[in-house]
Amino acid sequence: MLQTVLHNIKQGTTFYGLECSKSQDQSNYLVSQLKRKGSVLDIISHSNYSTKETLFKKLPKHANIHLVLNNDKVLTKLLLGQFKTEQELVYKAFPNIEVDAFYYQVLQQAEHSVVSICRKSYVDGLIDDLLGIQCYVTHLSLSGLTAVALKPYINEASIQISNACLEFDGHQLQTIKILNPINHYTYEINGLHITSDHLLATAAVLVAESGLDITANNFETSIWKARFFQGRFSKVFMKTAGLSLLVMLLINFLCFNHYFNKVNDLEGLSQMNQTAKAQLLSLNEIIDRKESLVTDLLKSSNSRSSFYVNDLVQSLPHSMVLTACNYQPILKRIKPNKPIDQAFRIIEVRGETNSNTDYSDWISALEAMSWVQRVSPLHYSDQVNSKTTFSIKIEIKHD
Fold this sequence. Notes:
The protein is α+β, with helices and mostly antiparallel strands. The chain folds into 2 domains: 218 residues, Nucleotidyltransferase, domain 5 (2-Layer Sandwich), CATH 3.30.420.380; 81 residues, 2-Layer Sandwich (Gyrase A, domain 2), CATH 3.30.1360. 40% of the residues lie in helices and 32% in strands. The protein is built from 8 helices and 18 strands. The strands form 5 sheets. A 5-stranded mixed beta sheet has the order 3-2-1-4-8, sandwiched between helices. It has a 4-stranded antiparallel beta sheet with strand order 5-7-6-14. A 4-stranded antiparallel beta sheet has the order 15-16-18-17, covered by helices on one side. Strand 10 and strand 11 form a beta hairpin.
């Protein structure tokens, strides 16, 4: 499973077989698109193009291309016998060429050997043209040799491709005949329905990706694959990096927004606390001032009231008794959230006497005291049982 995932990341899952063919002096570019699903390759589409310019407009960027050259730029020969090396077969088939200037593909069989060659300059130029539109050739096949690997899956004596017919004796390729006119066939290979026009393009992908290739060659496949891997890595890396950056920015934004809101809430709460604290300090200060004032007043009042009461008691005749002495009396009943209404600098005195003379003398004595402003009788009752009740109001002078 892991190997499949890594392989798909490295190779991709979509492949394009591209056959450059020529028939009746007409160039054709035949494309087969296949996609790997698990371990199975499915055909997605087939398409034909008459010009290279049209083809290049249709190919997607970063396409993994399996290139098949099957035109007049490729030379193919069949030779009897077997050869020790591919180079020996190439020299035997084409004794006058400079082998290093050509790509070759060789198929050695029991009786016949087949060799196809194409100039490197032409192949490299076509690969560079594809590279210019960000498409990468990773595999190459010459002539119809790739189709030979599919013969065990086709129960026919011959296999027709886009411009020729491959004739077999069993599974051994015997001849390659150019067709004019061209007939069209449809082959079924492991459930895949493939037309003869697109057989080579499809076979190029199937053979390479399934490891069925039975030919030898001098292609620079490793260089081409490395170039594709670099391009794909850049594409995947940029997408992954861009997506990762986007996710990181999104996470960063969400975190920033979350903590920014938290900070705003805390700042608002802190501001409220500061305001409440300031108000509390202000209230405490007011309370402290009022407590101090009340304390001072209480001290002063206690001191003064004691002084006044002492003078009253000292001046009181023996025939008189005080029953109440109210210093600065409350005028109204105390109500919540209402100020206390007091009679300031007033002393109300109630008592009993059995001597009218002593009462009159005491009133005169009070009026003579230095701190008394005025003495006003409030009540004086008739004698009952030799006793008279009275009440007076003493107004105290200002300091």
